[in-house]
Amino acid sequence: MIYQQKETHLKSPLSFWQNFEHEERVLFYNPLENELIIGAKRLKTFKTGESYIHFPYVFSTRTFFPTLKDQKWSGLGNETIAFEFYFVEKNGKQILYYAQDDFDIQEREFTPQTHVYKMLADDYEDWQELFYNVKQEIASGKVKKVVISREITIECETTVSIESMVKNLLEKNPSSFAFAYFKDGKTFLGATPEILVQKKQEEIMSYALAGTISRGDKEHDEEQKTALLNDPKNCHEHQIVKDYIAKVMTSFCDDVSVGATTILTLKNIHHLQTIIKAKPKENSSLTDWVFRLHPTPALGGYPVQGALDIIERCEKHERGLYAAPIGMMNEQGDGIFVAGIRSALIDGNRVYAYAGCGIVKDSECEEEYLETSNKVKTIVESL
């Protein structure tokens, strides 16, 4: 399969998305490369270990847990896919790739929609129950950290405009990885700051991203950053994640480099962030590293298996693709997987928004609940 390519000039990249209204589609924006990739119309599903040669991009997902129970997640995840058409915008240049027949992309205008919506239920009592159950597990010494999450159901008066939400996600979160995946009438989308793992030739990189403080007015930003860098609870939570990633990498690599801990500033919050790089001893694929690292303690907890057992037992909702690996790779297998956080599943006029936070021994119930509310603003503001 050899893709043809041609330069194109669309006023809005979302015109490409709109041209395939009923087809399976994916959108992936990488802020590190300033690259937007949109794929449309499934062409091929790859088997484990199968080569990607001659496919300019492949899209890959894994669900948070290996199996799914909730019907609303049915058919989503655990696949690596090539699409028949790709639109790529990078450095001001737009390229259309097509595998078989050329396709004349029609420029389409759409009026951005502001959704009228309501939250369907107050979930604070459920949160309290989940929080204190987890705190008991931590107090017993079984685990040091558990990442718990909320599923917030939002009902809109009209069918959700995916194009409007994607446009807002891209514009409001320029330093995050924006993504949208449409299949069988449902869309999973979001804007995540978290890289699970990246592969560039012989180098592997992962982000430790844990520890959070809300942003207030801009004049106090520096004070908040300093407070976060010196907060014992957040630094402890961050250290758990950093140590775990470095330990996993050390098992497979000779040269592991742990960077300095810095602040990642997003629209509504600051995070502690550390970049960890390594060079593997033996040849391994990016998907190998996804299986080795997912979930990090930033997404599940620590020790990992003990935390996952608690999440599976105590959380009442299905995580599906929330906090799960979502990635885009090139034909050499290089690419990036991000964690599907600051995300939502859209089905008709319903939005299932997800937000989580890490619970350690010094965590406070109301404080952590407010943190998740700040995180879910990424989705709410995109409506």
TrEMBL record:
For this UniProt record, the keywords arranged alphabetically read as follows: Isomerase
In its UniProt record, a GO molecular function of this protein is: isochorismate synthase activity
Domain named Chorismate-utilising enzyme C-terminal: residues: 124-375
The record's catalysed reaction(s) read: chorismate = isochorismate
Write the protein's name.
isochorismate synthase
Similarity remark: Belongs to the isochorismate synthase family.
EC number per UniProt: 5.4.4.2
The cross-references to InterPro entries, in alphabetical order and at most eight, read: ADC_synthase, Chorismate_C, IsoChor_synthase
* GO biological process entries: salicylic acid biosynthetic process
Root EC class: isomerase
